[in-house]
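Board notes, transcribed. Complex of a protein with adenosine-5'-triphosphate.
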Amino acid sequence: MTPALDIDGLNKRFGGLPATRNVSIRVMPGERRLIIGPNGAGKTTLFNLITGDLTADTGSVKLFGDELVGMPTEKRVHLGLARTYQILTLFPRETLLHNVKLALLGLNPIRWNPWTVLARRQDMTVAAQTALKQVGLGDSADRIVSETSYGERRRLEFAMALAQKPKVLLLDEPLAGLSQEERKTVGALLKTIPREVTIVMIEHDMDTALEFAERITLLHYGEVIVEGTRAEVVADPRTREVYLGD
Ligand SMILES: Nc1ncnc2c1ncn2[C@@H]1O[C@H](COP(=O)(O)OP(=O)(O)OP(=O)(O)O)[C@@H](O)[C@H]1O
């Protein structure tokens, strides 16, 4: 079976310092993969290399067999790659619905033609409303982002990513900054995402993340040092040494 994401020998240096060292990771379709590692281990850099926000020095990243290296981010999105950010990237003075529509508009290659956009607006509204419903914000479509709670904004970001109907979804610390209650809501939401979507998640909250993850990759100083099933990685002494602080 072709992997959903096939990362091979990926390297990235910042001013001589390696942030990603010969990283090879294979994620199969439908998998729920958790990426863990101490601060500065290279987790976000890895995501930026996958999305094209950063350019790799060497190595390959394939999405369902298509080479992404050298491809602009927008094209990667068209191939089915979506991500959420560690720091929320929303338009705070717009409505929730408008934010999701803007995410969809970004996906539309003919978005600069106003007539086309107008003609498609109804479709987009329906798609955006469906995505908001999917994350439990169906009744909040017309609210302004700045008037919503942090947890609701996190869910809005999910809606924006899901509206794009991604094949592979990268989640960068989706639980960061959330209250215990909100963590539960987002944790439950994660479980409702269909298997057609392969998920790779960076997360420090081990309670929720471990429940969700099937396989785990541990990064340390930019390198993959442990990888395996949830049970294997948790039981590995190197995980305890560098991450779980045992
Ligand atoms: N744009 C950049 N320019 C220079 N150095 C960078 C840049 N981005 C990341 N780094 C460095 O690369 C290394 C990996 O950083 P990265 O943010 O990927 O780690 P991380 O595992 O995501 O950490 P955290 O858990 O704190 O988010 C760090 O040493 C960091 O200082």
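Residues 114-134 form the longest helix (21 residues). Residues 14, 19, 37, 39-45 surround adenosine-5'-triphosphate (CB under 6 Å).
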